[in-house]
Every structure is written in structure tokens, then in C-alpha cells.
Write a structure and sequence with these properties.
heterotrimer, A alpha+beta, B mainly alpha, C mainly alpha, A: alpha+beta, Cytochrome-c3 Hydrogenase, chain B, 3-stranded antiparallel beta sheet, 10 strands, about 45% helix, globular, B: globular
């Protein structure tokens, strides 16, 4: 039908159940159809980049927990890698493996949540989220054993990790790895071939490979569009170069592909974890920092303050949401001169307008769900 | 007819009093049941702390809702906004008159019970549109027009599947229709009509996968978004009572109500047990559906109604007509209707998976393609 | 017979009154029990925490109206179907085919609407 009605403007967010936090989408609607979409962010802006310039390098680690609060481990990891590049620090082998294991556990936790919330946005009434939370809780238990925190972990340190895992950690991790394949099979069974999820998400929010690259999206969104780009392969960090895994890529670039990629990555993470747990070497988990460090007291690891050489460094990793990068400029002082976060949520959000215009309100919610943003990371 | 009192007015008054007492009590109990059932299905415990097994949670909630401040938007259209609650709740009460619970327990045994029920229960749609428009809220408006479109559309398959049953029983009295099922319930003759009735019933109750008018993740409760406290609980009450009524109607029309499988002249307690079991089965099914499936989009919903359910509902009517006019044996009805039901299922399945090739559900390593 | 019908609809009348009374008493109970604190922000309609943009009673898309018309047609058909459904066996073959023609015409109408794209939401 070509008859047009008067368009009207609706705020979706900041206080909306499915904007994943305080993100605001201003939609201009013609009936149910979206004719214009504006993204308004900044409701969770905490000025982290500026605050970080006033704190020492070690004191900045907790900030990285609080950007992407659903994947604190990877946030920590990207930052410490950047600082280690700046200071040319070699990290001990065991610490590298611990970092890898924690990052992959975090990926499982984060993807579980993303998949559950995506199903929620498709209209499933909390059930997938609740089931996914079972696994996430167990992973958080492992984190708690390793570092005492569950959400804002503050585990990585510049030069290693804050402490070694306790003795009971390994058996419990092995136990979890035995349980998880059953759970994943269950999710694949219930969600992957669910007719309504297919009907709702296939062909919705399509992003071609060219568009995806042009908007510089990353992570499952880029791979969903068919571009096999994964920093774990392209620019290996921690112990990823020693592990065998495959990159899941989609074909259509629609919401369904992104969702499938996340499910596939759960399996890959599991495969990596199995290898990494077997290969775990023994040894120290922290590199003593060189003469340039100022060590308070007698604590052997994790100095509170030190002065890296003048220079700049960019550390990047594959976080569950995409390329997470920390760009740090040092002027030789105890705190960074410039601290910039290249957050995948923020950049993955940019093609939302492109994907949403022409679809319906219901589709826009599904598309937003498939992008998997964390507003803490969008706004910093 | 069995009267509670000599005077018909007094009798009706007494019976309705019983209904009016049972409805809030039943709704409070049902909210508890729903929260428990959904909790268990989602690996949670549900209400635990108020009373044994959280049984008194519903009462605590009622007290909370009663003592909440009544907030109404300043810009709302006051008469529409306030009347909408009445327009939604009153038809539910009116519809309850027509449902016979057992051979003896009913408010009134109507000769046109089925017709009356369908006519009255659809009045609530007006209430939703009123609530949506009167709230002066964009989400409510979107939800209100969605409710209007969805509920009137699904009214038709619901009515047509009821017509199919009426054809089979040659009666519109629910009492007569039930008495006819003492050997075989109508579900055996009308599987297609049953499937259509359940799908349309789900849509009329706006439960998943048809909760588009009130979709929480899209329109944040739709028409009810501006209603809070006791007004909101009225919406909830109407929803739960309709849930019970639709479930009772489904068990009367298709599962033989209080007669099948023990015959027409079983004891009253057995009739009550039969009806409670059958109605609860449907209620639990609807609750199960609520947590099991995602939501359709409104265009898919309308396509399902007008392009699949409606033609197949007509097909069921034509099958019934042919079989009854030419007096074919009743098993032909079962076979024809069953075949049509399977065909409908196959079409829905095909349409849902039409676009593209389906991903395999086997391990991820097989389905991933490129490796750098 | 008249008194029987009368008897039935007395119950309907009383049910209607009960419905109003139940809702009314709940609202009055709420009026008595609830606190009242006026504030200008409470009276603003919900739009995700922002002040609403533009007017809310916007025009609704035309397609809802088309569905309403379609509904009207089929609902009236259903009204005709009910008396026919309970009597066509007695009336015999002819009544069945007459109704078949009626359904056929409406089915053609539905098909026409389908082909015209009324049933396609987009």
C-alpha cells in the first residue's frame, strides 16, 4: 500500500527494557515502519578516558573492568597488553596461559548472555537468559576462586596476573568443561532451529561485507557478514598462537548469522579451553618489572606506580564484542598522557541507522539485540 | 432448572455472587501458579517467602496494588482512560455466565451459549483500543492499534472453528454440545478445528508467541503502559479470567467437558474433577507456551491469520458440511480433518524456514567456513 | 419460552452490574487506601524517561483500517454461518451448496485482497 500517514517520533530508551542499559534511540515512525533513526548516547558517560590521565598505570586497571562490565577480563587484558607494549615487558608463559583461559571463559560468559538477551529481544520471555545464566554463574564462580570478584574482576596486572590460581581451580574448571558441551547442545537444539527466531531474524538487519568493513565493525558482527577477521588469528596475543581453533563466519550478514556465530564461538572457546588447560605450564605468573619501577613495600608483584618510557602503544584484542583496543601515550610520567579506548560496542553501533531504516519497530529491537552492546563500553 | 432460590432474580444474584467471589480468589491463586510454573520452567524457584511455598504472595501483591498511588497522566483523555478498565473487565464477567462448568454447576444454561460467549468476549477489544488511545502515550497507541488489529483478526478463525463444532453437534448450546461427546470427544473428529481454536485462543489471550500488543521488549506493555496499581491489576484479572474461560471452552468444545470419558451420568464430584483436570491442562499449556517461544512480528502474525488459519478454517467447515450432508461415516471426518491439520502444519513449517538454507545443528567445527 | 430467555438475560444483566461493581469497588478501595502526592512529573506520560516529542495521538496507518473492513466482512459472514451451521443437515444438500457459494464469493474476495497486497503488511 502506498498511502502514507503522519510520521511520529518515539523515544526508545533511555528507560526501555530492551535497550540494554541507558541507550536512547529516537525513531521516526510511519505506522510500524521506521523512516528515520537517531542514536543518542552519553547517558552512562563517566569520563573514563580523562580520569585515567590522573591515575597511575596500575590504578587504571579497575576502569577497564567498568567499561565492558560483562567482559571485565578482556577489558583488563587489552589494557595491560597496551602498557606491556609500551614498556617492552615479557610476560611469563604461565601468565599468558592464565590470561588466555580467563579471556575464553569470559567470552563464554559474555556470549551466553548475548545469546540469551538476543532471544529475549526476539520475544522469548526470559527463559533463554535464565538457562544461560546457569553456565555464566559457574564461570563467575571460577573467577571468584581465582581473584575474589565476580563481575569487576581486576585480575590482570601489567606484567602478568594478580595471583596464581588456587589448587582447587583446575579440577573445577575441568568439571565445568565436561558439563558445557551438553548445555551448548541444548541451546543449539532449542534456539538454532527455532522457527520463530529464524522468521524474526533471518534477512533482518543485513550488513554486506563491504558495508561492514566501511563502518569498521568488528567481532561477531563483522564475521556474521562473512569477513573472517579475528584478532586472535590476525595478531595473536597471550597464548593464542599456540592454540588451534577456527573462525566462524556467516553468509548473509543478518541478525540470525550474528546469533549463529556467537553459538559457534561458544564451541570454539570450549575447544580452546580444553587445549589451554592441558598445555598450562608451571612457573611464575608475574614478571618483575625492571629498574624503572617504583615498588611500594616488599610486595613482589604488581607495583602501584612506575614510569614507562616516553612513547605510545596500541594494544588490541578480540573481546567478545569485537576489536577492543587501548591507545596509550606516555610522557614519561607515572600516569598516561592520553588514554583512549577503541570500544567495539560503540563502533559496532554506528551502522544501526543503516540497518534499522526501512524495518519495523520490532526489527529494530532485534537488530539492537544482535549488535550486543554494553552501554558502559559505548559511553565509557 | 435447578434453582438456588425461588425467585429468578435472587437466584441469578446468588450465582453471580459466587462467581464474583471465586474470580478474585481464583486470579490470586492463578498468579501464584503461573509464577511457580514459569519459575520452575526457567530453573528458578518462583515465590518462596510469603506463606508456605509462597502461597500468600498473591495476597501480598493485591494489598500492595490496592495501596499504591493511582497515577494518571495529566494529558490522558480522562473518560476513555477510566472507562477502558470497565470495558475490559465487564465483558469477561458477562462471558462467564455462559460457561457451564458441570451438568449442574453453571450460572445459566443458554440455548445460544456458544454464540453468546464469542460475541461477548470480543467486546474487550474495544477496551484495549480505548486504553491505547486514551493514555496519550505513543507506546500505548502503538499497542492499542496492534491489539485492535490482532484481536479482531484472530476472532475470525476462533469463531469459524467454533462454527465447525456447532455443525457437528447441530446445536449452539454448550450443554448439548458436551452431552454429545459422551463416547468420543470432538477433538477426534475435528483435529484441524482444534488446532485452529488453540492458536486463535492463544492470540486472543495475547500470550506468546502472540503477545505483540503488550510486547514488553518493544512497546513496554502496550495499552497498559500508563496503568498502574489497582487499574493495572484489573487488566491482569481480565487476562487471567479469560485464560480460564478460553481453557474451559476448549475443554467443553473439544475434550468432552464433564462427560468424556466416563459417560453423561457420572457423579457430580467426578464431573468437577474432569473439568478441573481438562481446564488446568489447557491453562498449563498456555503457561508453558508463554516461556517457550519467542514472539512473531505483526506482519507474520497477520499473514498467519489471514493466509493460513482462515482458509483452513473454511476448509474444515466445508469438510464438515460434505460429511454431514452426504452422511459419510464419521471416521472420514477424522481422516480428512487430520490430513488438513498436517497440511497446515507443513505449510507453516515451510513458510517459517523459507528463506535461505538452514544451518545444521551439529558441532560448530563443521559449520564454520574460512580459516585464516 | 419467553420467561426462560428472560431468566437467562437477568443473569447477564446481573453479571454486568457485578462487573461494574467489582471494578468500581476496587477503584474506590484504592482511593481510600492509597497515598496521594501530586507532583508535576508524575503526570507526564511514559516515553522512556524523556519528555514526549510531538503529539501522541498521531494518525494511525491506513492498513489497520483495511483489516478492520476485512474483519467486518468475515464477522458478518460468521453471523450468517451460525444459524446455517445448526440447521443445514435438516435443510439438506441444497442449503449446503448455497452456503458453499456464499463462502466461495467471500473466499474470492479474500483472494482479491491477498493479490492486491492488503494482507502484506509492508
Amino acid at each position: 500500500m502506498t498511502i502514507k500517514s503522519e510520521p511520529f517520533v518515539v523515544n526508545v530508551g533511555p528507560q526501555h527494557p530492551s535497550t540494554h542499559g541507558v541507550f536512547r534511540l529516537r525513531l521516526t515512525l510511519d505506522g510500524e515502519k521506521i523512516i528515520d533513526a537517531d542514536m543518542i548516547m552519553g547517558y552512562l558517560h563517566r569520563s573514563m578516558e580523562k580520569l585515567a590521565e590522573e591515575r597511575t598505570y596500575t590504578q587504571n586497571i579497575p576502569f577497564t573492568d567498568r567499561t565492558d562490565y560483562l567482559a571485565a577480563m578482556t577489558g583488563n587484558l587489552a589494557y595491560v597488553i597496551a602498557v606491556e607494549k609500551l614498556m617492552n615487558i615479557e610476560v611469563p608463559e604461565r601468565a599468558q596461559f592464565l590470561r588466555t583461559i580467563m579471556a575464553e571463559l569470559q567470552r563464554i560468559a559474555s556470549h551466553s548472555m548475548a545469546i540469551g538477551i538476543f532471544a529475549n529481544d526476539c520475544g522469548a520471555w526470559q527463559t533463554p537468559v535464565m538457562h544461560m545464566f546457569r553456565d555464566r554463574e559457574k564461570i563467575l564462580d571460577l573467577f571468584e576462586m581465582a581473584c575474589g570478584a565476580r563481575l569487576t574482576l581486576n585480575y590482570m596486572r601489567i606484567g602478568g596476573v594478580s595471583r596464581d590460581i588456587p589448587d582447587e581451580w583446575m579440577p573445577q574448571a575441568h568439571k565445568l568443561l565436561k558439563e558445557l558441551p551438553k548445555r551448548f547442545a541444548e541451546y543449539e537444539d532449542l534456539l538454532l532451529s527455532n522457527e520463530i527466531i529464524i522468521a524474526r531474524s533471518r534477512g533482518v538487519g543485513v550488513l554486506t561485507p563491504e558495508q561492514a568493513i566501511a563502518y569498521s565493525v568488528s567481532g561477531p558482527m563483522l564475521r556474521g557478514s562473512g569477513v573472517a577477521w579475528d584478532i586472535r588469528k590476525a595478531d595473536p596475543y597471550a597464548a593464542y598462537d599456540k592454540l588451534d581453533f577456527e573462525i566462524a563466519v556467516g553468509t548473509n550478514g543478518d541478525c540470525y548469522d550474528r546469533f549463529v556465530i556467537r553459538l559457534a564461538e561458544l564451541r570454539q572457546s570450549l575447544y580452546m579451553l580444553e587445549q589451554a588447560l592441558d598445555m598450562m605450564p608451571s612457573g611464575p605468573v608475574h614478571q618483575r618489572l625492571g629498574t624503572s619501577t617504583v615498588q611500594p613495600g616488599t610486595q613482589p608483584i604488581a607495583p602501584l606506580a612506575f614510569r614507562p618510557p616516553v612513547g605510545e602503544a596500541y594494544g588490541r584484542i578480540e573481546s567478545p564484542r569485537g576489536e577492543l583496543g587501548y591507545y596509550i601515550v606516555s610522557d614519561g610520567g607515572p600516569s598516561p598522557f592520553r588514554f583512549h579506548i577503541r570500544s567495539p560496542s560503540f563502533i559496532n553501533l554506528t551502522p544501526l541507522k543503516l540497518m534499522a531504516i526501512g524495518s519495523t519497530v520490532a526489527d529494530a529491537i532485534v537488530i539492537l539485540g544482535s549488535v550486543d552492546i554494553v552501554v558502559g563500553e559505548v559511553d565509557r | 432448572m435447578f434453582l438456588l432460590a425461588d425467585n429468578v432474580w435472587l437466584d441469578a444474584l446468588l450465582r453471580m455472587t459466587i462467581v464474583a467471589v471465586l474470580v478474585p480468589v481464583g486470579v490470586i491463586l492463578l498468579t501464584w501458579v503461573e509464577r511457580k510454573v514459569i519459575g520452575r520452567l526457567q530453573q528458578r524457584l518462583g515465590p518462596m517467602h510469603v506463606g508456605p511455598f509462597g502461597l500468600l504472595q498473591g495476597i501480598a501483591d493485591t494489598i500492595k496494588l490496592m495501596t499504591k498511588e493511582d497515577v494518571r497522566p495529566d494529558s490522558a483523555d480522562r473518560p476513555t482512560f477510566e472507562l477502558a478498565v470497565f470495558v475490559i473487565v465487564v465483558p469477561v464477567f458477562m462471558a462467564a455466565v455462559a460457561i457451564p462448568f458441570t451438568a449442574d454447576i453453571f450460572v445459566r444454561n443458554m440455548a445460544l451459549g456458544l454464540f453468546y460467549f464469542l460475541a461477548v468476549s470480543s467486546l474487550g477489544i474495544v477496551g484495549f483500543v480505548m486504553a491505547g488511545w486514551g493514555s496519550d502515550n505513543k507506546y500505548a497507541l502503538l499497542g492499542g492499534v496492534r491489539a485492535g488489529a490482532q484481536l479482531i483478526s484472530y476472532e475470525i478463525p476462533l469463531i469459524l472453528s467454533a462454527v465447525a463444532v456447532a455443525m457437528l453437534g447441530q446445536s449452539l448450546s454448550l450443554y448439548t454440545l458436551v452431552e454429545l461427546q459422551d463416547n468420543t470427544p470432538f477433538i477426534a473428529y475435528q483435529p484441524l478445528a482444534f488446532v485452529i481454536f488453540i492458536i486463535a485462543g492463544l492470540a486472543e489471550l495475547y500470550r506468546q508467541p502472540f503477545d505483540i500488543p503488550v510486547a514488553e521488549s518493544e512497546v513496554v506493555g502496550g495499552p497498559t503502559v500508563e496503568y498502574s496499581g489497582i487499574r493495572w491489576s484489573m487488566f491482569q484479572m481480565a487476562e487471567f479470567v479469560s485464560l480460564v474461560l478460553i481453557s474451559a471452552l476448549a475443554s467443553l468444545l473439544f475434550l468432552g467437558g464433564w462427560v468424556w470419558p466416563f459417560g453423561a451420568d457420572n457423579a457430580t464430584w467426578l464431573q468437577v474433577v474432569l473439568m478441573v483436570v481438562k481446564t488446568s491442562a489447557f491453562i498449563l499449556f498456555f503457561m508453558w507456551m508463554r516461556v517457550s517461544v519467542p514472539r512473531l512480528r505483526i506482519d507474520q502474525l497477520m499473514a498467519l491469520c489471514w493466509q493460513i488459519l482462515l482458509p483452513f478454517a473454511f476448509l474444515q467447515i466445508i469438510i464438515n458440511g460434505l460429511v454431514l450432508v452426504y452422511d459419510w461415516p464419521s471416521w472420514t471426518l477424522t481422516i480428512l480433518s487430520g490430513a488438513a491439520a498436517i497440511a497446515m502444519g507443513a505449510i507453516i513449517y515451510r513458510v517459517a524456514r523459507r528463506s535461505g538454507v538452514l544451518y545444521q545443528t551439529s558441532g560448530a567445527a563443521e559449520q564454520v567456513g574460512l580459516v585464516l | 419460552m419467553t420467561s426462560e430467555v428472560f431468566n437467562v438475560y437477568i443473569a447477564v444483566l446481573i453479571a454486568t452490574i457485578f462487573g461494574f461493581v467489582l471494578v468500581g469497588s476496587a477503584l474506590i478501595g484504592n482511593l481510600i487506601l492509597s497515598p496521594r502526592q501530586k507532583s508535576p512529573h508524575k503526570g507526564v506520560t511514559y516515553e522512556c524517561g524523556m519528555l514526549p516529542i510531538g503529539r501522541s495521538r498521531a494518525q494511525v496507518h491506513f492498513r489497520y483500517y483495511l483489516f478492520a473492513i476485512l474483519f467486518l466482512i468475515f464477522d458478518i459472514e460468521a453471523v450468517f454461518l451460525f444459524p446455517w451451521a445448526v440447521s443445514f443437515v435438516e435443510l439438506g444438500e441444497q442449503a449446503f451448496y448455497e452456503m458453499l457459494v456464499f463462502i466461495g464469493i467471500l473466499a474470492f474476495g479474500l483472494l482479491y485482497a491477498w493479490k492486491k497486497g492488503v494482507l502484506n503488511w509492508r
